[in-house]
Structures
1.
Amino acid sequence: MGKPAGPAPEIELKLLLPDAAAHDRLRSALDALATPHVAWQVNYYLDTVRLDLRQQKAMVRVRVQDGTATVTVKTRARLAGGVSQAAEWERVLSPDEAAPWLQAPPSRIQVRALCLDADLLQPPLDPDADLHVLGALANTRRTYAVRLADLGEAASMPMDPGTNLTLELDHTRYSAGAERFELELEHPDAGDLVALVTDYLARLGIDA
């Protein structure tokens, strides 16, 4: 396999919803705007036994969705005002590489087996080091393609009302039984959209 491309910037608005009722209310409102693509995901989070990734505020994840598996690396992550920014790199695993994750996920895997570029992590990990699956969560993601104008009054638009947006509504379930509900919007100008989206939620009676 060739050398993977370097990480790209990821900028997204992440708003935590207070409860299942808020999730259901938002789901109904978004369903009225667009037909969602519904995906069922299982995310496996990996690190060394010494938690080297956590210490450098990095994340390695394998996501299983729709019969495929994708490895993702996020570094230099920061969250401010509901806007998350990180350097992100992804690679879709080949069918042979994906097979174990689709059937019985391995408890550990070598760094080199995921083809992680040494430049992604600073300091880099030893290619022979083992990454262990530290936890997993299941997520139902509803993805909606909407226009900016669908979310508010034209006078309050921070950009062209015809701008296309992708909203992702997540219902996440942890192995211990806890649940989390979240709305995500990935956009280069996500910071400019915070007030518009929170106002839209407020009109639905949702405090996020």
Note: The chain has a mean pLDDT of 90.
2.
Amino acid sequence: GYIWVCAARKKDIVWEAMRTWRNQKATERFHKLEQMFLTGKTDPDFHGKVVPEGVMSWGEMVYRKDSTLEEYLEKYGIPVDWKYPVGSHDIVDADQWLSKDDSVLDIESGNYVPIDWRNCIDEYIDDLEEDTVLVAVDYHI
């Protein structure tokens, strides 16, 4: 088995196990939400409600009527085209702070456009030495 930790060396991380686990949990959640919608009843520990369009939680539509598992996994799972199954919002190290919300200047248009966050994560992790320790931090500002 694996030990779930919040810090590990890059070389010790089993990326596919992370992807598999996350997609398994997202699949289970989809089926629970679907069942809540079909029965019109939420689980006692669920913070949300069933509405005609689907299931809401914390002000967000987390399940839409007639949605498929594939659609749900596209939004809440880890797609196979992500090289690293990391859903992080920011990357912080001693030299920089990169954010999913960052933008860059498009030379042709002169406008700022969002960065390609998936590519940013992939390149960042690719460039790390195998002994680099990665740490996951849950923060709220």
Note: The mean pLDDT is 93.
3.
Amino acid sequence: YTFTNTCFICQNDFKAWRKRQRLCKECRNLTDELSSETTNTNNYINIKGDLEHRLIAEQILGRKLFTDEIVHHIDDSPVNNDRSNLAVMSRITHGKLHLFLNVVKAFCHYRGSRDFFVRNIKNMTEQWAIETKEIIVFL
């Protein structure tokens, strides 16, 4: 069975194999491509075998992080360990957040407004957390 859906990014109709599928093949490929740009630039600051952003989060929280907790860099920069750029969440929440952000990044890229994404990523992350009721601790 197939469904005719409208792509969230390009607004073109496409044949979907799931009723709730939101992206056409081309736009899905764009989200994957833009996502891999970030994945390939993970240059976290390492201090004697520990990652600096995790040490900062532990110091602020006053406890060790659980094994399933992730310290997320809000601006996507692994070297910006400023407190206002860090958020702690579960691995599952982190995955969901990146799925959302990848789609928004592709949408902004497609519309030629990449600057909008960069300027508003923190607001979008906070709004996503509110709307989805996911637990995120902004440091």
Note: The chain is about 45% helix and 15% strand.
